[in-house]
Protein: UPF0149 family protein
Organism: Diaphorobacter ruginosibacter
Amino acid sequence: MAAQDPTLDATPSTDEFNPALSNDALDELDAILDDVRSRNEETPQWEFCDGYLTALVCTRRPVPVTEWLPMLLGDGAEIEGVQQEGQPLPLQADIFQDEAQQARFLELCGLRLHEVASQLDIETDSLDADDAFQPECMDMRGAISMLPEEERAEMADQDIPSFAQVWALGFMFAVENWPDEWTAPRDKDAAKWIDDSLEKIVAITEDDTGKPAVNMYDDAGPASTSQERVEQVGEAIWACYDLRQIWKSFGPRVETIRKEAEPGRNDPCPCGSGKKYKKCHGA
């Protein structure tokens, strides 16, 4: 079975909102990525992928799977041989074990893309609302703090990312790889709005150096994340709403083709013949 191009249908649903990816589906994604990592050790974790997919939802131009899949898991080169949207995607044998694994990964990513788009298109005044956008951010420090002392000691020398740091790095990875789609528009107010929104996401790519106050992994666990970090993540979520709406209001960029000016009739012909243009190619 060949994988199809997951498309973005951003029509918000009025039905009760349920997560697109169950815990079992998230475990399945982790297992797929672990298997891909056995062939490419640079394969990111799902948290990074979720940030990356969120950025695609917020990008000005809808980025097709032929571009974003190899950039996320492959060598970055656009997949060729797909003529139109919805056409089966050739098996990426350097990434996936088989067509079934590829199809399942793209199916689950497609569900998440649709969910994020739907959530960001629903007006809300609270991030606690059931249908509010919730990024797949991890508190690895909080999770590790809950491990037995011996296991924590084994990880003492490892650089453990802060809450939501990996998610934000995934988001900015997409922004950096499609710079033309993130070029600020001429409208100064909109450009400032975009810059301010991106700055809020960039802020959580940095390490959380504040005083630990809460544990995002377990309310009863040892403090692992600063209150400032929690507030920064909230601001980054609101920034995703803003970016989605700003770029939707502008629509895809329109390429302009500039026609080169023709030489004057008495000018030398650009072909190099030595004749005047009117006596040569302008005749």
Notes: The chain has a mean pLDDT of 86. Residues 227-250 form the longest helix (24 residues).
